[in-house]
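We emphasize that the prediction below concerns an isolated chain of 160 residues; any contacts that depend on oligomerization or on bound cofactors are therefore not represented. The input was used exactly as deposited, without trimming of termini.
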Amino acid sequence: MVSLAAKRTFMLLGECVPTLIPGTSKIRVKRLELDTNLLMYFKKDEFYYVQDAEKKCKTGDVVLIQELPQKLTTAITHKILEVVYPLGDVTDPITNRKVVVNKYRDVMEEQTKLYGESKTRFEYEKAKKRGWLEDVKDFSHEESYIKYHESENEDQPYAI
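Result of the prediction step, given as a token string:
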């Protein structure tokens, strides 16, 4: 068993996922848990409800959270310190270079210059910032709810 002191952490890094509680964000923190029988680590997701009245983070953002000195409710135990990486804009923390999947963007640009530009290539420099499609195709800022059934005549754009 892991000791209680090892389980309590000051700050956590996690990903924002959709939530149903207004004024909060739900953060998924990925951890590795040791199986003592197999002596192997397995992925385990822990979810934290975080105080987010200003709506700092959106679904998909990587955020840094901190434990509150006192719980606000039984569910809300942490607060958001900062949005580390907005969705789709990941920066390598060591080199401070932008990353796409497993390659640096500047390396991809050099390869494009060497081999020629593809017609389907995405141009990151010309792309607009996240949020310009709010209320058009991006509904992550809207209050969400659980979709219990499919209905032909009823549109449910904000359902989870």
